[in-house]
Amino acid sequence: MKATEVPEIAGAYLFEPTPYADERGFFCRTFDVDVVRSVGLDPHAFVQDSLSRSVRGVVRGLHLRSGAGEAKLVRCSYGEIFDVVVDLRPDSPTYLGRAFFELSGETQKTVYIPAGCAHGFQALTEITDTSYRIDREHDPSEDVTIAFDDPELSIPWPLPVTSMSQRDREAPSLAEVLKHKEG
């Protein structure tokens, strides 16, 4: 497994495992304490694993947490997603930077998203399972959502949106969220 810095988002990493394939399918390690530690992350900081299942065209996000935020490892364990990270840390050298990834069950790549960054994805296959390893317990009172189609972000979603939660449909613009954060 190798770790590569994501240039568009300071402190973000892409972890790429080495799948071993044969006639049965494949096997790969999706989390390695030593590799995570080698880039300066505390592998024992993660306290919660979650999984979402989506169908083709579903958009989830853009989500982040207020307060101390949350860091997370995101991996598509089955199917394929178009994954989006937006840096919303005002003191970051990559503030308002965006990074896009295609994550899939075939590659099992994982993206590390630092606290203070917004995250979202779109399912590209009929069934998509997305795994999250999160460094804080979920507190719904800290949930923040930004409009997936905010013109300032101009995210190039690859498919028409087939479904999203009411919360995501009604999300405020990036400007509104930033104004609220400052106020």
The name of the CATH architecture is Sandwich
Poorly predicted tracts of residues? none
Total domains: 1
**CA(first)-CA(last) distance:** 43 Å
**Helical/strand content category:** mainly beta
Helix content: 10-25%
Secondary-structure element series: EEEEHEEEEEEEEEHH
Major beta sheet, strand line-up: 1-2-10-7-12-5
CA-based shape = globular
Number of helices: 3
Question: What topology does this entry show?
Answer:
Blueprint: E1 2-5, E2 13-16, E3 20-22, E4 25-27, H1 33-38, E5 48-54, E6 59-65, E7 72-78, E8 80-87, E9 98-104, E10 110-113, E11 117-123, E12 128-134, E13 143-145, H2 166-169, H3 174-182
Antiparallel strand pairs: 1-2, 2-10, 3-4, 5-12, 6-11, 6-13, 7-10, 7-12, 8-9, 8-11
Describe the structure in your own words.
The mean pLDDT is 95. The longest helix is centred in the last third of the chain and has 9 residues. The protein is mainly β. The protein is 10% helix and 39% strand. The chain has a single domain, classed as Jelly Rolls (Sandwich), CATH 2.60.120.10. GO terms for molecular function: dTDP-4-dehydrorhamnose 3,5-epimerase activity.
Short description:
This is dTDP-4-dehydrorhamnose 3,5-epimerase. The chain has 183 residues and is mainly beta.
Question: What keywords describe this structure?
Answer:
5-stranded antiparallel β-sheet; RmlC-like_jellyroll; RmlC_Cupin_sf; 3 helices; dTDP-4-dehydrorhamnose 3,5-epimerase; globular; RmlC-like; single chain; Jelly Rolls; dTDP-4-dehydrorhamnose 3,5-epimerase activity; mainly beta; 183 residues
